[in-house]
Write a structure and sequence with these properties.
Elements: E1 20-23, E2 26-30, E3 37-41, E4 44-49, H1 60-67, H2 75-89, H3 93-110, H4 116-125, E5 130-132, H5 139-146, E6 151-155, H6 158-170, E7 176-179, E8 192-198, H7 206-219, E9 220-228, H8 246-255, E10 260-264, E11 268-273
Parallel strand pairs: 2-4, 5-6, 5-8, 6-7, 8-9
Antiparallel strand pairs: 1-2, 3-4, 9-11, 10-11
Helix pairs in contact: 2-3, 3-4, 3-6
Pfam families: Methyltransf_11
Protein name: Class I SAM-dependent methyltransferase
InterPro entries: Methyltransf_11, SAM-dependent_MTases_sf
């Protein structure tokens, strides 16, 4: 999931009332019982839910997406809702996020989460030290750190990296973070053995995507690992703006002039040898 935790006044660690979280025109409230509901009143959006701490994990992305399938939902509203669900379920900012991260990592490692097979394959493909582009919440870097790898998480939004810096020690994990544009990474050439871009390219247009791949090749000593979803239509509420298929990934690999492999596994993969 991409994130706009860095938008003005959007602080995922800011204090809030017990069971109630608001940002802009979005209010999320925990109630005693009932399904997740969305109510619009003029320009305001009210979300109610009865989630428990055990419900907080990355799997919420799929359930919230299903809940808003017929609603006119933009990316900002989706992300505000997701953050609000976490913050209104558990009192205390760091406590709430630690629950969310701990549950999510457990489900990813146990194979329960939708993204589990993607992260598992990514871990199998990386070699040596890893620099991850567009890390967002940083679940893949955390997984790699838990496996004992030397890993750096990067994202263009400082809010996501601030959150990751705060939560990682709570999980007993050690990694580095770097705030940067994936097309302009402020590190020397050949800085990491592997550079990963997992479900990043669908968020940027073709020209920016090409620049990201070029930058990844510059930074990687050994290989670049790219994964994208295969969608009939770009999922707007997740911030997707273009779709991929095997021919388009193959074309992208050909533009690099490097040896590469394209294959399908819960979406498409492009592995480039540097």
């Amino acid at each position: 999931m991409t994130s706009t935790l860095d938008t003005p006044a959007f602080d995922s660690l800011a204090p809030c009332e017990s069971g109630l979280w608001s940002h802009g025109h979005v209010t999320v409230e925990r109630v005693a019982a009932g399904p997740l509901t969305l109510t619009r009143d003029g320009g305001k959006l009210r979300v109610t839910h009865a989630l428990t701490p055990e419900d907080l994990s990355e799997r919420l992305v799929a359930s919230v997406t299903a809940s808003i399938e017929d609603a006119d939902f933009g990316q900002d509203e989706f992300e505000s809702t997701m953050v609000g669900l976490v913050r209104s379920t558990v009192d205390g900012a760091l406590e709430a996020w630690a629950v969310y991260y701990r549950n999510s990592l457990g489900e990813l490692l146990d194979g329960i989460a939708d993204f589990a097979p993607i992260h598992e394959r990514a871990e199998q493909l990386v070699r040596g030290s890893v620099l991850d582009l567009g890390s967002c919440f940083g679940f893949l870097p955390l997984r790699l750190a838990q496996a004992g790898m030397d890993v750096t998480a990067t994202d263009i939004l400082s809010g996501t990296m601030t959150l990751l810096d705060a939560v990682a020690p709570e999980l007993g994990l050690d990694l580095r973070t770097l705030v940067c544009d994936a097309a302009h990474v402020p590190v020397p050439d050949n800085s990491a053995d592997t550079v990963t871009a997992i479900h990043l390219l669908e968020h940027v247009d073709e020209s920016v995507g090409a620049a990201v791949i070029s930058e990844a090749i510059r930074v990687a000593r050994d290989r670049v690992v790219v994964a994208v979803p295969y969608e009939d239509e770009a999922t707007a509420c997740h911030g997707h703006i273009r779709t991929f298929d095997t021919p388009s990934l193959t074309k992208l690999g050909e533009t690099t002039g490097r040896p590469f492999e394209v294959f399908e596994h819960h979406g498409g993969w492009l592995v480039i040898d540097c």
